[in-house]
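Please review the protein record below. Tell me whether the encoded fold seems credible here:
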Amino acid sequence: MPERILRRIQVTGGSTFIVSLPKGWVRNVGLRAGDYVITQPQPDGSLKIAPAKGFKTKASRTNLIIRSRMNPDAITREFVARYLAGYDVIKVTFEDKVPTHRAVIKDVLRKMIGVEVIEELTDSIVVQCLAKPSELPVRVAVRRMTNLAFYMLADFIKALRAKNLQLLQGMNERDDNVDRFYKFILRQLKMITLGIISPSDVGLNDLRECLGFRLVIKSIERIADHVVNASDCILQLNNTLDDTTRERIVTFAQEVSQVFSKSIKSLFDLNVELAHEVADSVDRIEKEENEIISSIMLTCEEVKCAVLLRLVIESLKRIADYSADIAEIAVNLAVEPPTTTFKVEKSGEGS
């Protein structure tokens, strides 16, 4: 950790408070006498000081050249990497006019928040990220992302109980919406770590919260993926489940859904007691998982049916596991960080 230096506040002119800057820091960031710095108050009462020459005053741009040999996955990774890096404008140039390459970019854009094509030529596309971080703070975005995943799970349970497979047909599209929020929030958090924006710009207090929410959104994204996996398995079974097995899975899924809901509440309320309750419930859920799987292995006559049902139960158990991870983050964030010790330097000595 960088050394902390304690400086004394002085008064000049009878009404202006001043504090000298450490000489080492000034040299490291390339500042000289007469240069400007930016000061920005933080929610925790601290004051952020940054060189003004690094201040972002206009849209940042980057280029992406799509080579003819690049496959769709590589194109997607290259574009998303630039989006997550915090660039406002991304110019995509196509080395060869391969129609599928342009289609890949268009498909990627549909899975992002606030990203629009502002210019399109025969050999290039210019994309701009119009959504500003402050317009959708991290906590608000995480709540919306959570709601999407939670109602996916709720509809899975409803479809299973009512034997209504139509409710499961659009799960992949709904998962895409969860992924859109995941990328948007991850972009915000990466911009903070790169110094492009500060935690307060997106409603967070410090880098510790940034790390916590980075882990949270990954857990929520994986929860939505497991709802899709479970839904796909139920669709393949095509209502061939016996009522006893169906009801047992519904009961198990409801318990998992409650654990997920409690984990999110513990996070936003920083309710440590509730978080511990969530974490402790995983052992019980694991025991129930083993019992249900054992029953399935004994009662299912077809191998395909047994395999698909086991995948459903395992996906539901993984949702509980990720919920426990979220609860653990809630406990971590609820603990006050230790006080920092400082090296004391006398100000006014040019240091």
About this structure: The CA atoms of residues 278 and 324 lie 6 Å apart. Strands lie at 5-6, 10-12, 16-18, 37-41, 47-51, 61-66, 89-94, 115-120, 124-129, 343-344. The chain has three domains: 5-56, 61-131, 135-334.
